[in-house]
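Researcher: Next entry: Transcription elongation factor GreB (Sphingomonas sanxanigenens DSM 19645 = NX02).
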Amino acid sequence: MDRPNYITPDGYARLRREYEELFGVERPRLVETISWAAGNGDRSENGDYIYGRKRLREIDRTLNRLSRKMKAAKVVDPAAQADRSRIFFGATVTIADENDNQRTLTIVGDDEADAGAGLIGWNAPLARALRGAGVGDVRRIDLPVGAKDYEVMAILYPAAN
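Model: Predicted structure:
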């Protein structure tokens, strides 16, 4: 990766929990099932064995992906942001379009983005356009349906612990 993979402490903890659940609980249980199924004889028509091996490969791919993400992650705590007057990583931002339709979104790491929940990835076009903006600034975002202007109405950061 040529650019840092920023992630919030909560996002990193979620990746870690998923990894530990797969590695420590689901994978050992599946290995046990595969061993039991293999002991039942003919493996070519043994559904438990065939499905178990397939699922084990899926888990191993997921573990590999999670491991790479955690290794490349640069954990940034938004609560420690010194300049809270501008939009940086971890900011919760309220923006309004030309029709005064307001949206509130939080700029998070790309691995924890969920647009439906208002979590926008750091490298998403909207987040890139808003970076460094302050309250009252208007930013133009090129969308597939055309360019749209958004005004920054509010910027919030989590409270420092």
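Model: Note for the record: The chain has three helices and seven strands.
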